[in-house]
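Hi support team,

I'm opening this ticket because the web form for multi-chain structure prediction keeps timing out on my end. I have pasted the exact lines I submitted so you can reproduce it. The total is 526 residues across two entries, so I didn't expect it to be a heavy job. Is there a limit I'm missing, or should I split the entries? Thanks in advance, R.K.
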Amino acid sequence: MSHVNNNKLTKHFWFWPIAWYLFLGGLGGGTLTVAGIFDLAFRGGVELEGALTGPLPQLGSVFALAVLIAVAALGIGSFLLIFELGQPKVFLRVFLSRTAIIKYGACLLILAMGFGFVYFLFFLPPEWGLFYYSWIWLRDICCVCMMLFGLSVVVYTGVLLSSMKSKPFWNTPALPLLFTVSALSTATALMAVTAGLWPATSFNLAHGGALTAFIVENLHTIDTVLVISEVVVLGIYVLMMYGAGNVTARAVARKWLSGSFAGLFWFGMIFLGLLVPFGCYLAGGICAELVAPVFVLAAGLLLRFMIIYSDARRPIPGEERYWERIPKGNEKFLTAWKWD
Amino acid sequence: MTRYAMVIDQRRCIGCQSCTVACRTWNELPQDIIYNPVVSEGVQGVFPQVHVSYTPLLCMHCDNPPCTICCPCIASQQDEDGIVWVDETKCMGCKVCANSCPYGARDVNHKEGFVRKCTFCKDRVRKGDQPYCVATCHQKARIFGDLDDPASEVNQLINSLKTERLFPELNTDPHVFYISDLGGRK
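Hello R.K., no limit was hit. The queue was backed up. Here is the completed structure from your submission:
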């Protein structure tokens, strides 16, 4: 007889694919949002070396690779969500309900992916002749839509978990806020690492190198602010649960602060994931260009894993005692009578 | 209109787990799924004033069930008589409902891939029988019936005795009522 987990209080329903899904959803949605904001904010021209550049209609090509990765991340995240289903073959049933948050999340994912992909197509090399590059109005519509739907995906990943009354550690409006800050931070890090790597030269983008440096510098500044914001929001979140949550939320917060998650939380999340990137951004150079973004991305993933495995349900009085005592199927007495 | 509910008289329950076994048998549950545990905090009080209280658990068949609202594929549904159940042919196994239930009434058998839960034995109830856990309880600690019928035993018990429900602050409006082992009188 095999060992099975009968304990309904320690049994998880969601595992690593959902943690990755939440991370990739946040990363993809956040990247589309930040890319859209940057395109709209700076396409009118920026000041480089003391002189205005003039309009930059192809500015988006600086972070086109990030947009492509974002679309891929949303696609992989959706695949993982389907992979996690008990009946993956009928995944299209996700769209049937009018009230399910997960249905709206699936719709938002598809819309963000679609608009992001069409936006990206405008930055394919023109000589390929694959697209109507003169349809700037379509690109602008896609830019605004991918920004809005991307942000909606980011918020949705937090709302999905925070809507569950049964999970005291998730059931707070602070969770969507934490996920949003973390997602925008990881998105900014991704954009900073990949800025200028797409072959923008195809478009004869003026000031190519200086412009990329300007964008990256802005991204580093924004991510520095986001990293500090995340430290604050995460600190408030865990301390709020520890001080003002119910017994279950407090037990989970204690697990984060001084229990089995303490190493991951203090060393992995706070030190390596947030304080080290903050220091790297301040130090500049290769630290800011490579080390900080990689650590920020890893911290975003770690946060989703820690949250997903903090799914404790409030026990009904006597329930803990019951589930601890229930046979698991590997008890010695079950096989002790056998001759061999 | 019929609205099914259950009253559990903890003054009568002796924690024999007959209902747990009956439920497993009737529903042919896999090894890792229990719809109907009977939990207890053990002996309470100081000798000689000690007592043991048992709390049989099951799906609360809430009037405002969080598990049906969050189901994207309409597999998790509530009938007009209040019975909350899962249509296994429609369930895609996203497990959102299992995560959203505050009472831990839902479970997933990973081999089958869909969510399972107590149905108040609706196959028996629709034929005029009692749920199997009620029919099996030799202490008559479980009473099942129509909450909207003034002549039903559940209606009379709820209106005449002090009853409690689990986690009322969550506004799920559960339809399983407990008569406390040390209470009962209004």
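A quick check on our side: The CA atoms of residues 58 and 205 of chain A lie 7 Å apart. Let us know if the file doesn't open in your viewer.
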